[in-house]
Batch of 2 targets.
Target 1
Amino acid sequence: MCGVIGILKEENVQYDIALALQSIQHRGQDSCGLATKDKKKFFLEKEDGLVASVFNHKTLADFKGSIGMGHVRYPTMGSAGKVNAQPFFEKQPGIFLTHNGNIINYHDLRKQFLEKSLYLTSSCDVEPVLYVLAEELMKLRQYGHTTEDLAVALKETYKRVRGAFTLVGIMYLDGEDTLFACRDPYGIRPGVWGEQNGNFMVASESVAMEMTGFDYRGDIPHGSLMVFKKDKKPVTIEIDKKEHHPCIFEYIYFARPDSIISGHSVYDTRLVLGRMLADKIKRKGIEVDVVIPVPDTARPSATAIAEELNVPVRDGFIKNRYSGRTFIMPSQYDREFAMRLKHNTIEGEFKDKRVLIVDDSIVRGTTTKHIVSLVGKSQPKELHIGIFSPPVYYPCYYGIDISRQHELIARKYKEYYAEGPDVFEKKMAHFTGADSLTYLDISDVQKSLGQPVCSACFDGHYPLPLREDEQKSIEDDRDEYQKN
Ligand code: SF4
């Protein structure tokens, strides 16, 4: 749950990077970082907090360069804070590297480095990736690296580093400053690129391109490296490509609706999911007078549901814009505190009506329960809940912060889950205090993009296999983080 940016243009690249980072701030709010290169000088600044509070005209004036990168971080491996903020830099052969995703064998890599007396300076999982890549490059030659060298070194790196990731890097290749980006073999985490008169940009989401005047060109192909040099055609080299499985949770909840990921509009996908859920609600014979989305993610799906059910969609919740996104608050305490600040209701939209509240997902159950108790005060005649995703029953080890089995509410009701969807939905309705609760079926989610997807947190089929000890090491890492 991070966002990455890389830009290659004429000069003063830092201003575009800061702007682009703000457009993807929803992907991580713990810390941010910005790095640029100007001839032989490297500039790097990382800090706790939001982009707008760290980077302003005064701090940005300290940077120089025509090539650079930025990062917004939500920790899904390692602790919060400046020490783990990205990008990272390795002096030899001079690489800046940043990523979005999770390295699933991070703890193995860390151990291997320690055995060689190579100490890491952080608990951020991109740091060992940087050292592996640097090591593989230095095996090929000490200096004067080429694009071909980078591809060869990355092939070796992919054998040693396993995970769901989009990497963005800067280094001197073929005698010029070069921006590169690559994605994991299954393309689980998103990564797109764009162009503007011979300038290039890579980003986690296409919305960053619109903010900075770049034209979105498409995905960085999964399992592949893309290399960008000023005024030259980008070069794409396959590194290790498997069947593409983009994370469906990006479309359901995480990405901005105005982004395009893997060629699919996030907004349109939410409409599709909404229509599918409306079908199921109709089949269950639930009748309502009004549909009300939980802001903001659920709005497109709620609109589609209302159209299908032929009832109005209304704004029954007013969101405090400055409260942040509860799901991406790192600790349960932060989430509960933020939730109290987050929503208020417009009583008249609920009172004496049969209401369908629509939300994207139920992970820990706290938000849904809170929403139902809030709405209860407005005395609706009936209160139904529609969730346009299936129950989150399995952890995500690929970089979304739902990585601990014991925090998933569906797991807490596993005996009902095992009895089938109807029993489980009734139990969840009872838990939340609603009259009914309807989840989207997994088969609908799997059809929604018209291509294979990663839906492992719903069905337990992990496209990128991981061992039990790797799963445990990620869960332990998150438990440790929550304790501190
Ligand atoms: S397990 Fe779920 S959240 Fe994680 S990458 Fe797959 S679909 Fe996305």
Note: DSSP finds 18 helices and 21 strands in the chain.
Target 2
Amino acid sequence: MPLIQWSNKLSVNIEAIDKQHQRLIDMINELNDAMRQGKGREVAGKIIDGLVSYTRTHFTFEEKYFAQYVYPESEAHINEHKHFERKAAEFRRDFGKGKLTLSMQIINFLSDWLRTHIQGSDQKYAPFFRQNGLK
Ligand SMILES: [Fe+2]
Ligand SMILES: [Fe+2]
């Protein structure tokens, strides 16, 4: 059973962004499976690296349109991205140093954050992006 399931409730009705969100969800589910199956630290570390790096790619994509369309709530939204990135980098660092075991608490943090962010802040920019022609 995947930890997070994609559903229409998570859609922003913009194809490229929905695809990116689906990929992030897949990565979190992959991390959850790796933990449950007791896969080694090396495997989990690689998945976290992939997640950190793909998160940056995705945030950059959204932020590019904030700048291009002059989105009025850009600053608060970018701060949410930064906060998430700081937390994820901290997990990665502690995990790499062996200070942290991959726990449900961490995976829950990542998945809750993603779900809440998509259903809150991301869905908020969606009508504005669509008005500006992004489909
Ligand atoms: Fe997003
Ligand atoms: Fe976002």
Note: The mean pLDDT is 93.
